[in-house]
Amino acid sequence: MRFCTFRVPDGRVRAGWLQDDTLVVDMHVVSQGQLPPTMMEFLKDAEANLKMARALADSLQGSLSGNMSSQASSDGHGTGQNGVYLLPEIQLLPPLPRPSSIRDFYAFEAHVKTARKNRGLEMVPQWYEFPAFYFSNHQAVLGPEAQVDIPPGCRWFDYELEIACVIGREGQNIPSEEAHAYIFAYTIMNDWSARDVQREEMKVGLGPAKGKDFATSLGPWLVTPDELERFGASRDEDTDSPLNVGEEVTSRFGKRYNLSMTASVNGMVLSRGNYRDVYFAFEEMIAHASRGVTLYPGDVIGSGTVGTGCILELGPTVHRWLEPGDVVELHIDGLGTLRNTVKG
């Protein structure tokens, strides 16, 4: 399923799911109050709520599309009656407007190697020993189509092409082989970066901080893992043989879905990568993050930038730093497209 948070025409903020690719369902209304009105509340009992949501979505399948299509053809838009809206008449917001936390990892070897090489640095051996992360600002989350401000004093403004997962179960000291069960959904993440600010503060030996904490984009949906089973992943690090649908990955890499990832600026594709190439899979990130610490439903785990996934890595000779008016689109197979405009 694809879950979302959205604003309806009368200004109310609701939560629900995408149905038949063209309709958005208000889960609180269609369940007659049995499902909560927000995604954060939904995640507090994700297993039971997901079971109910799937049953409701199955019962609505087909009948809604016909009814709403006939309404659309007669009056030009859906009515929102019974909690169902046509996709064009609602405004998508961040699927989790205020996550309980955001941990952003550094899990793609190609990105780390190239970014360090561009600065004349070798890889540090410790990077291979554990998946490193920093905490980002969970109160500064943007959704699809939102405008993003360049922070004060920044001249080197950059995007980062990432995939993120959302935790759906509370847990501590989670073994990596059990971690997949704690993932509620995946989404696209853009870790906006003020590179010149980041460069100076990192010289202190702590951070990143102000170079990162002003904005993170998430969206457009939260996509449950079953939706990605059709994207085969490699069985292990030494073979590209595809998985059968539903087959488990048995290597230490966990579930490495074969998800093509691209980023474009003003329609020009700059970045191309694949989640399959991640060095530390989400299962390993979750295991590390939960060591001695409780993870909670609504925590977001970011993958870090895929190889070629930012201007810093590509180099400003490939493309200048972002400027007001630039439209940045991140696309990941199975997850959709996350589009934002740099505010003028």
UniProtKB/TrEMBL annotation:
Q: Which domain of life is it from?
A: Bacteria
Does the keyword section mention Repressor? no
Q: Which UniProt keywords apply?
A: Hydrolase
The Fumarylacetoacetase-like C-terminal domain, residue ranges:
102-342
Q: Which Gene3D superfamilies match?
A: Fumarylacetoacetase-like, C-terminal domain (3.90.850.10)
Q: Which SUPFAM superfamilies match?
A: FAH
> Quick check: keyword Iron in the entry?
no
* GO MF annotation list: hydrolase activity
Read off the InterPro entries from this record: Fumarylacetoacetase-like_C (IPR011234), Fumarylacetoacetase_C_sf (IPR036663)
- Record protein name field: Fumarylacetoacetate hydrolase family protein
Q: Which organism is it from?
A: Alicyclobacillus mengziensis
Q: What is the lineage of its organism?
A: Bacteria, Bacillati, Bacillota, Bacilli, Bacillales
